[in-house]
């Protein structure tokens, strides 16, 4: 049950990002999601800096 809840929350968060940034690519949305989940510092280490949009 917790796994399903967690998946649902990720999907809602991703949908919110898509609404907030409709012109972003899937890769850019993935990077933003990583920043929300991991925090800025760890996302930067894992994925590098944001592209031209960020």
The 3D shape can be described as: flat
Distance between the termini: 35 Å
Strand content: under 5%
Number of strands: 0
User: In terms of structural class, how would the helical and strand content be classed?
Assistant: mainly alpha
Mean pLDDT rating: 88
* Percentage of residues assigned to helices: over 70%
* Number of helices, where a helix is a run of at least 4 consecutive DSSP H or I residues: 3
Which regions are unreliable across 5 or more consecutive residues at pLDDT < 50? none
The oligomeric state of the chains shown is single chain
Main sheet characteristics: none
The arrangement of helices and strands along the chain is HHH
Number of domains: 1
Radius of gyration: 12 Å
Can you walk me through this structure?
It contains three helices and no strands. The N and C termini lie far apart (35 Å). With 54 residues, it is mainly alpha-helical. The protein has helices spanning 2-20, 26-38, 40-47. It has one domain (2-47).
How would you briefly describe this protein structure?
The protein has 54 residues and is an all-alpha fold.
Notable characteristics:
mainly alpha; about 55 residues; single chain
Please give the structural blueprint.
Layout: H1 2-20, H2 26-38, H3 40-47
Helix pairs in contact: 1-2, 2-3
């Amino acid at each position: 049950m917790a796994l399903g809840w967690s998946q649902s929350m990720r999907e809602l968060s991703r949908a919110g990002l898509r609404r907030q940034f409709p012109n972003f690519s899937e890769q850019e949305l993935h990077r933003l999601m990583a920043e929300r989940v991991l925090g800025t510092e760890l996302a930067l280490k894992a994925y590098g800096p944001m592209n031209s949009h960020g």
